[in-house]
Design a protein that fits this description.
single chain; 129 residues; alpha+beta; 6-stranded antiparallel β-sheet; 6 strands; globular
């Protein structure tokens, strides 16, 4: 049975991940890249198995070697959230969610209030023409 902390982290992940995919930008992080996004006091980093390929020419060999040495420690997907400081760090795959860090606080409700930008109704009417 998942802990209350893991359930809360999963709710936040499920809310934030689509926003990151919509609004985030690819940024090199070491030999790979992640989707990054800043919204007000929040900063987000998303790493998934679908993250863009490494950006450095020597990155594939480095990433492969690093993956082989750290495979037992790191799950393929990760999300980190900063709210002035890192408040959430999780990793997951299809079967498991690991909470690495979770500083509970009012930021949880704030992050769940972030919404995707929806086009104004005028724009939708124009698109239909």
């Amino acid at each position: 049975m998942a802990s209350e902390e893991a359930c809360a982290a999963a709710i936040i992940r499920d809310h934030v991940e689509p926003l990151l995919r919509e609004k985030g930008h690819v940024q090199p992080v070491g030999p790979t890249s992640q989707l990054m996004w800043e919204a007000g006091p929040f900063r987000f980093a998303l790493r998934t198995v679908l993250s863009p390929e490494p950006l450095r020419p020597d990155a594939p060999a480095y990433a492969k070697a690093q993956g082989e040495t750290e495979a037992h420690r790191m799950l393929p997907n990760g999300l980190e959230i900063w709210h002035n400081e890192k408040v959430l760090s999780i990793e997951w795959d299809a079967a498991e969610l690991k909470v690495m860090k979770f500083e509970r606080g009012p930021w949880e409700q704030e992050v769940l209030m972030l919404v995707a930008e929806t086009p104004p109704s005028e724009d939708l009417a124009q698109r239909e023409l």
